[in-house]
Design brief:
By secondary structure, this protein is mainly alpha-helical. The chain has 18 helices and no strands.
Length: 442
């Protein structure tokens, strides 16, 4: 049986972790969180809390990644913790909602930023979005090394852009900073808990993606050491970067203007330079482009593993004879992402649809550590410190977010659950045709 090519290094996988988080979200969603909470201090605190929660999740997944260094990451953790059916459902929603929805949302955001430079008709918008997916899928099909170089280059460019915004923002602080009431933590918004969970839609979207590193474990050098290190270094870097860039934007843009901005980073730079908005939009477009590239590369390893387990379309298990990549899985995913671009529409509707299902299964994957430790012991190469406190905290927050989103955004939540339900008959159909392979013993 053909094997995937093991070529990813620690720097490469760390940059993939960072690049999969930093896409469009941090340049768009801070304005949405401020619109919900109406207090700069609480917004900054919320993003800091989002980073801490994300790091708790990363610590938990670091242990799971050191235990199961195969292709598919989260899919493997759920399979070993709960069995084939919930693992299949994770792969199902990743294909039909989570990853393809994220790709669609990123393409929508990319097209929005490109309109900073030229006006596009609706037909051209769709054409550009589809072309981006096709080009990036091709780059990722031709080899894991080309994917690593691509991800590293575009992650470096996006970090350079963010560093530029941070420097400008902190310089601007010393000249004419607008309405800095964000230190007023005593001004507690009504229903702060419920509003905070609603604002977490944008926060979770912006921090989301770090677990994509786990999907690539089968193509990573020394995965039991490299995967945990990559996701921990990556999530810490992203958290620090987000806090600094949001503070910098607040230094440049008054709250009243920030809450109505659809391109907050570009609008912030426009207040300083005559063409600042356009320059930062170029970097943001590059950033989004790079993240789409990572998403078209990583998640197909899940469908590949599902097919090899005998619970999904057999053709998705094929490895390209020359490039040693799961090419068919990548192409299949991209076709569905293109469908979602035409079906779903606006950026915020897509990300709500995506985040609800993504966090639901992230909670399930987190819970798997309790069952895995009970079945196999705690002899992993990397162990969660303060176990079980850290996984429990991450689990409580994610479950609360899922419940709150279902109550306040029922249309998007029900759409996700409907597609999840469609996975059940498909699973039992494949179970009858091909007996699923047993989960490997630890």
């Amino acid at each position: 049986m053909a094997k995937l090519n093991r070529a990813l290094t620690l720097p490469g996988l760390t940059l993939i972790t960072i690049g999969s988080c930093i896409g469009s979200g941090i340049f768009i969603t801070p304005a949405n969180t401020l619109d919900i909470l109406r207090n700069q201090g609480w917004v900054l605190l919320l993003w800091g809390l989002g980073g801490i929660i994300t790091f708790f999740g990363a610590i938990t997944f670091a242990e799971l990644g050191s235990r199961y260094p195969g292709a598919g990451g989260v899919y493997l953790y759920i399979k070993h913790g709960f069995g084939h059916l919930p693992a299949f459902l994770y792969g199902w929603v990743t294909l039909f909602i989570v990853n393809t929805g994220a790709i669609a949302a990123l393409c929508v955001a990319l097209v929005d930023y490109l309109q900073y430079f030229f006006t596009m008709t609706p037909a051209l918008r769709y054409g550009v979005a589809v072309s981006v997916i096709v080009i990036l899928t091709f780059i990722n099909v031709i080899g894991i090394r080309s994917s690593q170089y691509f991800a590293s280059l575009f992650t470096a460019l996006k970090l350079l852009a963010i560093f530029f915004i941070i420097v400008v923002g902190f310089i601007f602080l010393n000249t004419k900073t607008p309405d800095l009431q964000w230190v007023a933590f005593t001004d507690v918004p009504d229903n702060i808990f419920s509003l905070g969970l609603m604002a977490f839609v944008g926060v979770f979207w912006s921090f989301g993606g770090w677990h994509h590193a786990t999907y690539l474990a089968a193509e990573t050098i020394e995965p039991q050491r490299t995967v945990p290190r990559a996701i921990l270094i990556g999530t810490l870097t992203v958290t620090l970067t987000y806090i600094l860039v949001i503070a910098a934007i607040m230094f440049m843009v008054p709250m009243a203007e920030m809450v109505v901005s659809e391109r907050i980073a570009g609008d912030a730079l426009s207040r300083i330079f005559s063409k600042g908005g356009k320059w930062v939009s170029i970097f943001i477009a590059i950033s989004i482009f790079g993240t789409i590239g990572i998403y078209t590369m990583s998640a197909p390893r899940i469908y590949f593993s599902m097919a090899r387990d005998g619970v999904f379309f057999p053709f998705l298990a094929k490895i390209h004879p020359v490039y040693k990549t799961p090419a068919i899985s990548m192409i299949f995913q991209s076709l569905w992402a293109i469908v979602l671009i035409f079906l779903w529409g606006s950026f915020i509707r897509i990300i709500t649809f995506v985040i609800f299902m993504d966090i639901l299964f992230m909670a399930l994957a987190t819970a798997s550590i309790f069952f895995i430790r009970k079945k196999y012991g705690n002899d992993a190469l990397f162990k969660v410190p303060l176990y079980p406190v850290i996984p429990i905290i991450y689990l409580i927050i994610t479950v609360a977010f899922v419940i709150n989103t279902a109550l306040h955004l029922p249309v998007e939540s029900m759409a996700g659950l409907f597609i999840l339900a469609l996975g059940f008959p498909f699973y039992y159909f494949y179970k009858r045709k091909h007996k699923p392979k047993e989960a490997l013993k630890h």
